[in-house]
Amino acid sequence: MTSKDIHLDIYGDQNEVAVIRLTRPKKRNAINDALILSIRDLFEKLPATVHAAVIDGEGEHFCAGLDLSELSERDAGQGLIHSRMWHAALERVQYGPVPVVAALHGAVVGGGLELASACHIRVADASTFYALPEGTRGIFVGGGGAVRIPRLIGAARMADMMFTGRVYNAEDGERIGLSQYVVPAGDAFKKAFELAQVIAKNAPLTNYALMHVLPRIAEQPADQGYVSEAMMAAIAQSAPEAKERVRAFLDGKAAKVKKA
């Protein structure tokens, strides 16, 4: 699936890893309506062979946010519908068919940070910087950032970014929770692809639980979370593939965990 805004490639012996690349480098991969709809459609139509995905940005930047040059004047109702269009698209990233690893570099700004926050793992290289300039531009996040970003870094830090225009570099971004990994400049995609290859080998039901169930358990009261956890554990361990993997471990055919 290829367009002028986005490109899909599939790799692996069994076509198990999808690489989704934003292809608007002259616009620093800023997101217009066509691109956000392409992201939605792509995740809805991923081939069944794919078990993990990487999102990357062509050129020097991951994504510089909403393409303000194409921002049209909207009334309140139209703005609401536009925001909900973003919500639907990024919902397909976060709660779609496969885990998603973001390969971050350069600008991860505004809507670009909203896209990154919908991914399950974020790898930043040393060139990465994060910002939410909406506050200084008289607007507000509308792509799900008000929900997802505080869950990563807390509401106070997000408010500070929007109040003051504060910019975080790659190292400080990892420290506060915007990424899980920091690698040398130019290595984000390599690391993200390696992680996607590992994730694609997991039992599909375990990956599903981590994408769809774990975030919801984290939002539940403890007593409800324990019940949800027990039910998911029972379902996962009953799967034939899980039984095969446990049997392989007990028979000494599976690798043991070692110190990093």
Question: What is the element layout, followed by pairings?
Answer:
Elements: E1 6-11, E2 17-22, H1 33-44, E3 52-57, H2 76-94, E4 100-104, E5 107-109, H3 111-118, E6 121-125, E7 129-131, H4 145-153, H5 155-164, E8 168-169, H6 170-176, E9 181-183, H7 188-200, H8 204-219, H9 222-238, H10 240-250
Parallel strand pairs: 2-3, 3-4, 4-6, 5-7, 6-9
Antiparallel strand pairs: 1-2, 7-8
Helix pairs in contact: 1-2, 3-4, 4-5, 8-9
Model description:
With 260 residues, the chain is α/β, with parallel strands linked by helices. It has two domains: 6-200, 2-enoyl-CoA Hydratase, Chain A, domain 1; 204-250, Orthogonal Bundle (Lyase 2-enoyl-coa Hydratase, Chain  A, domain 2), CATH 1.10.12. The protein has ten helices and nine strands. The strands form two sheets. It has a six-stranded mixed beta sheet with strand order 1-2-3-4-6-9, sandwiched between helices. The protein has a three-stranded mixed beta sheet with strand order 5-7-8. Helix 1 (33-44) runs parallel beside helix 2, helix 3 (111-118) crosses helix 4 and helix 4 (145-153) crosses helix 5 (155-164). It is globular, with a radius of gyration of 19 Å. The mean pLDDT is 94.
